[in-house]
UniProtKB/TrEMBL annotation:
Origin species: Promicromonospora soli
UniProt keywords, alphabetically: Signal
Keyword Signal applies: yes
Annotated signal peptide: 1-19
Ranges where the DUF3152 domain occurs: 146-298
Protein name, UniProt field: DUF3152 domain-containing protein
Region of interest (Disordered), residue spans: 51-130
Superkingdom, natural source: Bacteria
């Protein structure tokens, strides 16, 4: 009986909520009276209380939606409309990397300027060359960079003060190149063993001899009136001009480029200190240092030193 009474009360309360919008007071009174006649004064009061609550708008707020498990505070704030132009909308997060279509591979990262290894930046001992792959540019600026540093001659004898310079733009460390040149000139098998010459290094303009490493075009210019044809070197007046093409690539007449470089230094400096060309003495014989040995040795065995048998 009690359960039936409660159902009737709830149904009538629903009727109040529906009919109150047209004739609220009359409808409520009729319903309350009917309930009171059927169920008693207490039930009638319940109807009247329900009507008053509906009339005054006293309703409880619906419960807030639960935050899904794992959702963070930032996503919740975005859903509240804070900092955006819409309320209650949640935009998907920006991807952290560019999207790549399915089945395709992203390109590998491009190497930056700082990816060179230390070995690629270290000058090669004996040449001063920098880099694993050397490109010979036929023409550069023509500006010469003098190698810094000075050093006394290591032996007694006729002292030649030598300045060393490298054309700007060549992949060569000037100081390392200068070390290679002076090491060759002052080797016991060098000119000191042949005629007593010894070589001091200087970076001043007060020099007796100068060794210049230059591009093919600059070599041609510095060697005038001699014709080096973009391929040869020269020793003229107080300057030995070494063609970078030969310094970097060597000569087919030589199996070992390091030996060829030693020949090139000794031969061209030989012109500067007063020596002229020799001829090959015969097939199979050792050439002297002043025999031309870049294009061909004319049947002679190549020789890099003025005094190859010196201690």
């Amino acid at each position: 009986m009690i359960a039936l009474s409660l159902c009737l009360v709830l149904g009538l309360c629903g009727g109040v909520a529906v009919t109150m919008t047209t004739e609220p007071d009359a409808s409520a009174a009729v319903v309350a009276g009917a309930v009171e006649d059927s169920l008693g004064a207490e039930a009638g009061d319940a109807v009247r209380n329900a009507y008053e609550a509906a009339r005054s708008g006293s309703r409880t707020s619906p419960p807030a939606p639960a935050v899904p498990p794992g959702a963070d505070a930032a996503a919740t704030a975005s859903g509240s409309g804070a900092g955006s132009g819409s309320v209650g909308t949640k935009e998907p997060p920006e991807p952290s990397v560019a999207a790549v279509p399915f089945g395709e591979k992203s390109a590998p990262p491009r190497p930056g300027l700082g990816t060179s290894t230390s070995s690629e930046l270290t000058p090669e001992r004996g040449s001063g060359l920098i880099g694993a792959r050397i490109t010979v540019e036929p023409k550069l600026s023509g500006k010469l960079v003098v190698a810094n540093g000075s050093r006394r001659a290591p032996a007694e004898g006729k002292v030649w003060r030598v300045q060393v310079a490298v054309e700007k733009g060549l992949p060569v460390d000037p100081e390392a190149f200068a070390d290679a040149v002076l090491t060759t000139l002052n080797d016991p098998r060098g000119w000191n063993g042949a005629d007593g010459s010894t070589f001091a290094r200087t970076d001043s303009d007060r020099y007796d001899a100068r060794v210049v490493l230059a591009s093919p075009a600059t070599t041609d210019k510095l060697c005038l009136p001699l014709d080096t044809a973009g391929s040869l070197s020269c020793g003229i007046e107080e300057t030995a001009v070494l063609n970078f093409k030969r310094w970097a690539t060597g000569s087919k007449a030589w199996a070992n480029i390091a030996y060829y470089r030693q020949y090139l230094v000794n031969h061209e400096v030989g012109h500067v200190i007063g020596y002229h060309h020799d001829l090959c003495a015969g097939k199979g014989k050792h050439a002297t240092i002043m025999v031309q040995q870049t294009l061909t040795t004319s049947g002679c065995v190549p020789e890099a030193w003025p005094a190859p048998n010196a201690d």
